[in-house]
Amino acid sequence: MSSSLHTEDSQWKNPSIYSRKDKSLGLLCSNFLKLCDREGVDSTIGLDNAADQLGVERRRIYDIVNILESVGVLSRKAKNQYRWNGYSAISKAVDLLKKEGLKDLSTVSSTCRNVSNVIACNNSDVKEKGEGKTAGSHKIDNRKEKSLMILAQNFVKLFHCSDVDLISLDKAASALLAKTRRLYDIANVFVSMNLIEKIRSPDNGKPVFRWIAWKENLRTGSLVSAKSDDSTRRTFGAEITNTTPKRYRDDSSSDVMSNGQVKRLKVSKDDELKDKKQEISTEQLNERGTKDFVFGPFGPSSLPRSGISGKENLKQIQNWEDLASKYHPQYQNKAANELFAHYVEAWESWQVEAANELHKQHEH
DNA sequence: GGCTCCCGCCAACAG
DNA sequence: CTGTTGGCGGGAGCC
To answer: How many helices (H) and strands (E) does chain A have?
Structure first.
């Protein structure tokens, strides 16, 4: 108790070493996934427990859970209870999302014209939730529309329903009528799941994201973070002493799970960036013994948009975009900025328009 | 200096 | 009402 050997050797204990990276959503997500995955079948995740195990506030768990739910790995069972669906659920969910997105595209609404806007608009229509409420047609949950889950789903659609491979958060934000800040959260989680990756635009070095899970031929995924032996995980768990002990559940912690094995792995700080997805092995995750992780029904044969040569074109166009981005800083005043914005929007618009055309005549 | 994005306030929502 | 969820943006860390 009072034996506080306060010497200067306690490096990881020194509050001045604090790095916000140690608390990033992505890292937390990795740990959370580990937590979930180690449980066998019938794994029910308790938010309190999870927060406790990971040494973070509940608030952060909500963020992660919502995003994870958007791609199906989790689903809400009850208050404070989530069910772990496994990684195999992702392809299904994404597939569905893609279908949804494409459908929305074909039924172009009046004002919504390009992919982004269609996606952004489509959640403003009715939810068709059976017949629960009698004449309960008041203003639709504005709150719900803006939820992280919906936004995350739309973000996914953006990748799968448009021809662009590289998407900057900036663009995505304006496309989805959302705040960029929120997309950072989502992107970080997806990155930690290896669904997408962040790369730099060659010219300007502006970060953009690209979908990398189960690409063309390799049908296994990624999600390396789930298990694997990569010891690049940062310290975490019960070691975060400086994590504002503000509002945790009391110590009586009824450990639902066996005992937290999420203890610190003790690794050096900077090396996680090295091994990105790079090598996506065929297995390395299905060691749980269950039928998890199948990733079957997701082939390259999607995108009915028969863009044979169009694809090439669009690739080309992307360069233009990058080019445009590069020039962005040149515009100083507001007017010019808006002009630029218009330009970008126009670019997106016509691109999609073309896709739509193909779509239509493909329909017949 | 701009890009990232953690933190936690506090308002909806559920019980 | 209390407790749970989670939008939201201030502002600080990081490049």
So the answer is: 11, 5
CA A172 → C1' C8, Å?
Answer: 18
Query: Do residues A185 and A147 make contact, with C-beta atoms less than 8 angstroms apart?
Result: no
Closest nucleotide to the alpha carbon of A62, via C1':
C6
* Nucleotide nearest A200 (Cα, C1'): B3
Q: Whose C1' is closest to the CA of A198: which nucleotide?
A: B4
Query: Which position has the higher pLDDT, A278 or A209?
Result: A209
Chain B nucleotides with an atom closer than 7 Å to a protein C-beta: 3-10, 12-15
CA of A302 vs C1' of B7, distance in Å? Answer: 41
* Of A21-30, A271-280, A293-302, highest mean pLDDT: A21-30
**A89 vs A248 pLDDT, higher one:** A89
Quickly state the pLDDT bin for A351 (edges 50, 70, 90): low
Average pLDDT estimate for A304-328: 36
Structure tokens at A243: 């994590």
Cα–Cα distance measured from residue A18 to residue A39, given in angstroms and rounded to the nearest whole number: 31
